[in-house]
Specification:
By secondary structure, this protein is α/β, with parallel strands linked by helices. It has 2 domains: 227 residues, TIM Barrel (Alpha-Beta Barrel); 125 residues, Lyase, Ornithine Decarboxylase, Chain A, domain 1 (Beta Barrel), CATH 2.40.37.10. It contains 12 helices and 18 strands. Strands 1, 11, 12, 13, 14, 15, 16, 17 and 18 form a 9-stranded mixed β-sheet that branches. An 8-stranded parallel β-barrel has the order 2-3-4-5-6-8-9-10, surrounded by 4 helices. Helix 2 packs parallel to helix 9 and helix 3 packs across helix 4. The longest helix has 19 residues. The relative contact order is 0.16.
Length: 407
């Protein structure tokens, strides 16, 4: 995030708080890092839009040249509305009805199937007429939290690597063409060797399917949440991927593309949630800062025990004190315990950093609280890209019944 405290305060004053603020320049720079590190026409990137799907963010990423990774038909429709072509969208749903798979097929998307039942249904109906990608579960535990680890033996995602023979039977029986293999082991991956282990597993599977055109390693690149935090070394990862690919292609003579699906990596650091300190409350045990937001706006600290740096952007030079920062919901609603923050006074604005990914996207109206506005700063200009909720938004899909007419 390259925006200054002064800019963030001005946006909060102009648009109200809480407010999500996204810096387009940061998204641009993060994408440029990926392109520079891998530096190959055979490497393609598909933005995992479940991280942040505001239509203006999608338009920006489309302009940068990335494709789109979608996990629902409505994400697909947002992508098409934003200008992505069908050929640049990969559809990777989980536990959906077969009708949703058919709808994606009719739209002409690259399908990624992650269970035997759907694979068999699709093969029986479409045979060799429409190639698909298969999502493999490698039984690898990786990621920063068990809730964001998706490739282990107990995960609901993907077809077990030990069911390869079953996949082959479905393919041989139905004539289904497999044009890609996919794997995503989790989020917040620090070690590039996790990707290489996944790649080697997929290469072994690829030997069984002659129509393979690409290998998709998902994403999960670690981003830094603290000043001294580790971030995945993209250059090291790119070099190891290139070396592993070169050895495989020399042996098998199979020319493949490699795909990645960065989500958090592109938008996390680009976003902040700016809130206002409602109360500073001292108890016998701690000093609380109660803000005008809660896990209905940013659920990651409560859901994933995630760390978000918190700064006092109204008074950044004050003496540091220790606070527990909490929300305004009628639940245990804690953003941070015992956090050093420049002295906070009621009315100060606080910024939650690295909030671009899975922030607004996972927000709700719990406690009948309203969702905040979203603002994108593009070439220095703050643009309102989502209005804040109003009370009428809470009622718009509810139907009031006249109980007096019921006997």
């Amino acid at each position: 995030m390259s925006l200054t405290n002064k800019q963030l305060v001005q946006i909060a004053n102009d648009f109200g708080s809480p407010v999500y603020i996204y810096d387009a320049d940061t998204i641009d720079k993060q994408y440029a890092k990926l392109v520079k590190a891998f530096n190959s026409e055979k490497v393609k990137f598909f933005y995992a839009c479940k991280a942040l799907s505001n239509i203006n963010i999608l338009k920006l990423i489309n302009k940068l040249g990335a494709g789109l990774d979608c996990v629902s038909i409505n994400e697909v429709k947002l992508g098409l509305h934003a200008g992505f072509t069908q050929s640049r969208i990969i559809f990777t749903p989980n536990c959906v009805d077969f009708s949703e798979i058919e709808e994606a097929k009719d739209l002409g998307l690259q399908l990624n199937i992650d269970n035997i039942s759907i694979l068999e249904q699709f093969g029986n109906k479409y045979g060799a007429s429409y190639p698909v990608c298969i999502r493999i579960n490698p039984h690898i535990m990786a990621g920063g939290n068990t809730k964001i680890s998706t490739g282990h033996v107990d995960s609901k995602f993907g077809i077990s690597i030990h069911q390869l023979r079953y996949i082959e039977r479905v393919v041989s029986t139905t004539g289904l063409k497999i044009n890609g293999l996919h794997m995503h082991t989790g989020s917040e991956i620090k070690d590039p060797d996790i990707f290489i282990r996944s790649l080697e597993i997929l290469f072994e599977v690829a030997r069984h399917f002659p129509d393979i055109k690409f290998i998709d390693l998902g994403s999960g690149f670690k981003v830094a949440y603290k000043e001294d935090d580790y971030e995945v070394d993209l250059n090291e990862l790119a070099n190891k991927v290139k070396d592993t690919f070169a050895k495989y292609e020399a042996e098998v003579r199979q020319d493949l593309e490699i795909w990645f699906e960065p989500g958090k990596f592109l938008v996390s650091d680009a976003g902040v949630l700016v809130v206002k300190a409602n109360v500073v409350k001292q108890t016998t045990a701690t000093t609380f800062v109660g803000v005008n937001s809660g896990f209905n706006h940013l659920i990651r600290p409560m859901f994933y025990e995630a760390y978000h740096k918190i700064t006092n952007i109204s008074a950044p030079d004050g003496v540091e004190r220790i606070y527990t920062v909490v929300g305004n919901l009628c639940e245990t609603d804690t953003f941070a315990w015992d956090r050093k923050i420049n002295e906070v006074h009621e009315g100060d604005y606080l910024a939650f950093h690295n909030a671009g990914a899975y922030g607004f996207e996972m927000s709700s109206n719990f406690n009948a609280r309203l969702k905040p506005a979203e603002v994108m700063v593009y070439k220095g200009e703050p643009l309102l890209i989502r209005k804040p909720d109003t009370f009428e938004d809470l009622l718009k899909n509810q139907i009031e019944c006249d109980f007096s007419k019921l006997s």
